[in-house]
Amino acid sequence: MKHVISTCAIALIAVGVTACNKAEAPKGSTSSEASLSEADAAKVADDTVKVWTSMDAAKIKALYAPSVVAYDFAAAALPKDRAEFDKRQDDFAAAKLDGASQVERKIQILSPNSFVMSGTWNMTSSTKPAGNGGIRCTDVFQNDTGKWTIVNEHCSMVPKPA
Prior knowledge:
The chain is of the alpha+beta class. The protein contains five helices and five strands, in the order ααααβαββββ.
């Protein structure tokens, strides 16, 4: 009987310690890392949108993590490497979108160091009007080194009504 009681006591202590440890902030974290507010994520998203609409290729490429995985709305397949990804960003900037407006946006906080921004856009270009139309994008942001970068992006054209 003593063995059963001591085994139960050890199990309860282990569960209690695990529960307490989960409530603590990670070692080395600061209070700003302990939580991410929707307002903080919205500021990162707003700053990202400003860079996208700047049509500055170098600044656009800097938004993305070195190992980003991204589906581009203008290409059928994933880029095979970062050089191809960067070329697609150069092409995006060269389109000189003179009418890019975010129609809707939803932010989902995943953790203190990651969030998702999903939304739709109306895109127009007077230099490349064939690409005008609606775009929908989902971007996953991650903060590993004190800088928010996009680690995953999926963009596609909004289907035209039948």
